[in-house]
Write a structure and sequence with these properties.
Elements lengths: L4 E3 L4 H10 L3 E4 L5 H6 L7 E4 L8 E4 L2 E5 L4 H6 L1 H6 L1 H8 L4 H6 L2 H7 L6 H8 L2 E4 L3 E3 H4 L14 E7 L3 E8 L6 E10 L2 E7 L7 E2 L1 H9 L24 H18 L1
Parallel strand pairs: 1-3, 2-3
Antiparallel strand pairs: 4-5, 5-8, 6-7, 6-8, 9-10, 10-11, 11-12
Amino acid sequence: MYDFSYHKPGSVADAVKMLGADGEAKALAGGMTFIPVLKQRLNKPSAVVDLSAAGLSGIKLEGDKLIIGAMTTHATVASSPEVKKAIPALAHLANNIGDRQVRSRGTIGGSLANNDPSACYPSAVLALGATIHTNQRKVAADDYFQGMFATALEPGEIITAVEFPMAERAAYAKFPNPASRYAMVGVFVAKTAKGVRVAVTGAGQNGVFRHAAMEAALSTSFTPDAIKSVTTPADMMNADIHGSAAYRAHLVGVMAARAVAAA
């Protein structure tokens, strides 16, 4: 690592002030991506602002909304009675992120701020039509994700919570890389009061995306058979040593069918 100063503010306001006062400062959530980046000297912040004491953890039900604080860990989401009651698929997703150590430190806000193209949470947020709360505004999921590692967040803007609507049906199916446990392909399907949405992570060249053809088919009949003939263009898929674009395109259909069956 390069040298940097370390700060642990006790509020969001103080964290925003620290980040705004130094253009080279970086926020630290769970650190599951940021700390390895620092260790490899791929980033040289002048200061690290730790958000763990800023009061951003917690889970609550408010009417027909489930609200999860940005610094809530994956393990907490996975074991939460409120999440299991409101959106069981979200608890299932959280329980299968990485390994126990990652789930104990990683946070939902950190995952969404980083927007790794193989992360699990973006698919749930997009499929459920969630709303990202920041210290400045509220951003709809459809507007938030803007490409691989790219989001609508402005400099100095911090995610404070994620607001999920209740789902009539929802499920997540993931084909993980056996070593990293990242999704080679993950598909989250959801049916809410606003209709059916399908989001795919781990496969697209531009990060998480909605699968319009599957949404249309499932809106007519929410069954695995309804999407049996729906194809995913291979030219929009990632390709690497773990799987070709055609392989990932095929997996999208397989994982989607499993998710629909589970839902």
